[in-house]
Amino acid sequence: MRAQRLAEQVATRLGAGAISEVSERGASTVTADVPPWRWLEALTMARDQFGCDVFDWLSAVDELGTGLAIVAHVYARDGGHHLLLRTRVAGDSPHLPTAASVYQSAAACEWETAAASGAVFDGHPGLCVLPGGAGDDRARDAAAGAAGPAGPAGPPGAARHVRGNDRPGAPAQRGRPGPRSR
């Protein structure tokens, strides 16, 4: 599907003001801005009506004082077109419904984005918001440690200090005190 045609179809369903960029360079790509309350509707539309069967990535950009811009990239393997969906959430309450209900693979991207930016994806299967928010590694590590290890490596995000051959799967040292000198 050509980018201009895709843009017209998106505009018909989301409103003319939703389209912020159309590109034919390389691949057909349309960028659409949607309000947070239409986030799941836009993702479902991308999947069901435009054939975007691949959820590629999701990220957040700190808009410095105005909140976070959350961007998702979806792709149609059959049509070869790309759709970037962008929404903005308030900085003091960065909540957005989880996209994992539409694209199962979105869960991992949301987990990483939440850890990096402090965004909260309501209804996410398994996302827990740790005290201290994004960027406070001491609070996150303390909370992860307080929860107890979830296995040999501990829970995701827990501080792990691995030295040389102490890492799992590495061959044991054979009587050498350290790396060989040349």
What are its keywords?
single chain; 182 residues; alpha/beta; Beta Polymerase, domain 2; 5-stranded mixed sheet; two-stranded parallel ribbon; 7 strands; 24% helix; 24% strand; globular; disordered C terminus
Secondary structure class reads: alpha/beta
Instruction: Give the overall average pLDDT.
Output: 75
CATH topology: Beta Polymerase, domain 2
Question: Which CATH architecture would you pick?
Answer: 2-Layer Sandwich
Shape: globular
Q: In order across it, which strands form the biggest sheet?
A: 1-2-5-4-3
Quantity of strands, as a count:
7
Question: Are there runs of 5+ residues with pLDDT below 50, and where?
Answer: 132-182
Provide the domain count.
1
Tell me the strand percentage band: 15-25%
- CATH class placement: Alpha Beta
Radius of gyration: 21 Å
Which bin fits the share of residues in helices?
A: 10-25%
